[in-house]
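Re-running the complex after MR caught last week's input typo. The corrected sequence lines follow. Everything else is unchanged.
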Amino acid sequence: MTFLLTHIIACYAAGVVGAFASLLTKRQGFFTAAVVAVVLGFGFHTAAIVQGIVADGHLPLYGAQEVCSFLGWALVLYFLIVQWRFPTKALAGLLFPTALALTLISALAAPVDQTPGLITEDPVLFSIHAGLVMLAYAAFFTMFMAAVLYIVQEREIKGKHFGAIFHRLPSLDTCDSIVVRALWSGFILLTAGIGIGMFWSYEIKGRVWTGEPIELFAVGSWLVYFALVHFRISSGFRGRRAAIVAIVSFGLIVVSLAVLRYSTGFHGLSVR
Amino acid sequence: MCILLVGANHASAPVDVRERLAFGDEEIASALNHLVDRDAIDEAIIVSTCNRVEIVAAGATGDAAVARALDFLGTWRRVDRPVLERHTYARFDDDAVRHLFRVASSLDSMVVGEPQILGQVREAYRRGVDAGTVGRNLSSLMQSAFATAKRVRTETSIGANAVSVSYVAVELGRKIFGSLKDKVVMLVGAGEMAELAVQHLRDAGASAILVANRTNERATLLAERYSATSVPFETFPSRLVEADILICSTGADHFVVREEQISRAMEARRNRPICLVDISVPRQIDPAVGEIDGAFLFDMDDLQRVVESNMRERERVARVAETIVDDEVAKFFLRARTSDIGPTVAELKERLNEVALGEFDRQRRRLGPLTPEQEEAIRTVLLPSIINKISHPIIAHMRDSANGDSGTEESVSVWRRIFRLGGGESN
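Corrected-run output:
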């Protein structure tokens, strides 16, 4: 394990402990300490990614090791953005352990020896395409977690359970605002990522669609999120039902990542 | 110096005793000057609220000060001694300081975490200062009490949740809408409790208030008081689309707000959530409203449950706050012991300086010719430096015994005797 990786894991682990301690005791000090640890870890993580870019000449997004690491980094990035606008401790309780788990998977996964020629030939297009799609996936994951918080808090309020969970979870409006913003950013990033991917495919093979399963899932996810955006604007689709759709649609992203993991064709070079 | 606290609170005395003991604002200054006799009691303040009357004092000895405080309460408030002895308590030193810190931090209040008590203690202190009955001891004690209360407020969430039914609407509203800024409140029926809730909602940032009441005078009165808009009672269903929070308290014996009205309003509101608070018994909002997605309905029992849950939450947080109080009590005594050696240190240095300068003048001729610069250097640099070197281990010893368990006063008085400082000679 590299020097940076051990430091990232130590910082994120401290963040997880601090986040849980703050949720249990409701003491601000624990939360502040957790955020400081995670910000420090994020600094190390950014340095590791920059190191990868310098070494490979493109975004380190080839193989399970690099993809997991990048997703963990992106989740922390989203947490910091959300925290700045909608301070909520409960999100840290879900997001920090996920970022830590992704970084641990990345530490344990076998590194890939050789980068395929397709990437080295056009490192910029690869970086933009893969980077945008992964940032979109991380945004949808943030949306998924905010939707989970919404559902739980809504059940507490509707069920008149005014206990520990009610006191610790953010307001419904906060959860909803995070869902909407994550939806918008994820949708825009996914649209751009797929667009760049199509352009890249056209450059190499002369067609935008190769019919691989991952492409089907990507477009399927795009359609579902497009529908969410559309109904939100046109008929105010929000509340519990919108949160449930947000949670279920994230299943598509998880399946997409799994399909990507076992792809053999054009995208077979993305994750090993 | 002994710190003393004598008084009665909601736990020790029934309300009829507390009201007999309570001090009016205008009499506090003269009462304090009567109480402080500069014999048993040197400094004092009186904290008098509806739930407590307490004298916080500093005096030479504890027992004499308690007797003095009880005599004073008995004569000034005309309460018999047996009644006083049955319903009051006396605390000394550690216990007195801890009690005061708990009071200021709202841990001893009837409603734990209520925010008013700190202001009342501050006011009591200010009155003491104005009356001239607060000296060095009480001043540092009260500053520590305020710092403790501040720490408890910032490090715990003791005052975060509502513990009065009328304030619960604000808390529930915040859990749904986040901020209440720019939210519209509609009152259907305008009882006293609805008015109280509106007052809290307005303070929390609600921008517009709509009032629909069967009797127009009451609606107009409320409309004037809260710059609200009066709505004819019959037309309120058509205005539901505007309301984010609806508080219902009419005297009707049937449902005034029905499911289909809210369903229609939700459609028009494009599913923006609505919080409905039914504070009437029998209930006047159809319970089926609570089943609608985005509509959150609470009745009196729910509000009461929130209050009870918040009380439990406060009790849990209070346990964390108690550790902060313990910590601050320890710090206070440490500071008090250390600051007690200050006057002795100053006197000691002055005494040594006197001796050194006296000897220098006496032996001056033996030193032979010196330039004015050399003489000045001896007086201002050499002698003070020697004095510092000699006094340093003595001061360190006094400070060590102040920080340790051994009595500071004993250590200080030994050194005062050795160097014949001030009152030390007579000892």
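None of the earlier attempt is carried over here. Chain B touches chain A at residues 154-157, 161, 172, 174-179, 269-273, 290, 293-294, 296, 298, 302, 305-306, 309-310, 313, 317, 320 (CB under 8 Å). The first strand of chain B starts at residue 2 and ends at 9.
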